[in-house]
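Hi D.,

Good news: the full-assembly prediction came through. Inputs first.
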Amino acid sequence: MTSPILDFLRRLHAELTDLRDGEVATYIPELGRADPEWFGICVVTAGGHVYEIGQTDIEFTIQSISKPFVYGLALEDNGREDVLAKVGVEPSGDAFNSISLEPGTGRPLNPMINAGAIATASLVPGETALSRQRRLLHGFSSFAGRPLAIDETVYNSESETGHRNRAIGHMLRNFGILTEAPDPTVELYFQQCSISVTCRDLGVMAATLANRGVNPLTAKQAVRGEYVADMLSVMNSCGMYDWAGEWIYKVGMPAKSGVSGGILAVLPGQLGIGVFSPRLDSHGNSVRGIKVCEALSQRLDLHMFNRRGSRQGAIRLHFTGAKVNSRRVRSSTEAATLQRHGHRIQVVQLQGNMTFATTEAVAHLVAERHDDLDYLVLDFKHVLSINDTAARLVYELATQLQAEGRHVLFTRSDRVPLLARVFRHKLGTDFEERFISFEEEDPALEWCEERVLAARGAPIPDQKPPRLVDIDLLRGLTGEELDIFGDHLERQQFAEHDLIIQVGEEAGELFILFEGRVSVFVGSENVQRRRLATFSPGMVFGEMSMIDRSPRSATIQADSPVVCRVLTREAFDRLGVEHPSIKIKLLENLSQALSRKLRKANLELSVFD
Ligand code: GLN
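Then the structure:
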């Protein structure tokens, strides 16, 4: 595969391979067996694209990179308050294994130094050592998107030599931060550090954090979204130990390093980075790992404080019912009414991630159009997500409008379940009545149009069969001509769901709808069928093939029991011979109707341009 992104990583990898500064950690004897030349880089986007180069498949122990993840699990299992009671969130500026606790409370300063990580490990629930270990592995595996295991050799090696961490455990017990014998918790801590991962795993785990806790490869939630900011915050301030300030200044991404030589960095909302190279600097951070992250940040402009922010608001498209109409085909009088009063229907197509910053634009638009608005249709079809603030903003907007007697309709709100939840929560039993939702924009628009038309005194359609004289196609015909024309028609009847016209068929007739409703569809049964238009009595369909004599271009189906009067082609031709003036008037009306349709289509196109 060729990719400019992969090429870039390949060059970076080659550039930094010559960097041989630093030492492989040996204080855990087993770690000393790592090959100092190992070097892998993996970048995973929040959308789930993986770019990897070098030794991205070699397994190594995760070590301290486990700390933010156990912190996330502890938050999920205990809640924020209980976790904060045991561990602070203040950077210590000390080395990872420093023996420092908050004066007075004895609370470790933060969960990224060993004291804080051991206190955090004590919060992992489980009756037995094995069940707690399972909880850990299950949590980590969701982040990596594959089953992870503990490297028993490294675990034993650390357990045999981890006297300093045991001392920290006992100190925590002394201050009442650990409430039971410290040893099992310290062992669990050693186990979490000994979970085997690859550089690729680190990239995926980082991307899961970038994607607010949802693993972009498996689409599974690894940790509740609300705790991701907690995890990233402590990584940001404390993740690189006594080098955290310098790191955030230069690289600008929350990150965590481990003594095996891994670094995991996260650009929230965008991507995750995993790097692996075992040689460490004096702070215990991978030398090449740091260089890779610095270079990625600078060359790809990833520093999180160097953002312009997306100025693209949540509004994709805004139009009124005067310019775009539902697919319900209207008589010329109805169409004229809609053109005059349709601006009272405002349709707003929303898009992207709806947050306060993007949704503000919707509130602004509604305020601006306020005087002109009786109906607001909010279409969520193109929305990716909505947060609580934005959902509440939409709620406030809707209730204000409703209090003034205006209508708010939602379409495709199934894309943002949170929205209905907020409304339901606030409205209680009023929900059904006040949360008017449609599966698509088209019927919502039709709903509004019907009301605008009714308010302007348009006759309610579907009630009685039209008289020939009221039919647009027959405008200008004299009474006598109408009688003659009527004699040329044949009555045809269809049941609900009958196919009246099928795409591809030879065309033999033109239909005047007298009773019931029909809809025009394009697309076959298997491909998605899409409604193009709905006709009500008095309208004519099937006329195009009468004019150009080509096969049917769409399918027409009866929405209800239907009665039509049909003009066959022979009858049409006969009319031309016997009563040319009638045929001329018909053709005139047909061409007027066609040019009206074309104008309408052009107007709609201009909206979408
Ligand atoms: N298990 C290691 C320790 O506590 C983890 C340290 C690290 O990666 N910085 O010593």
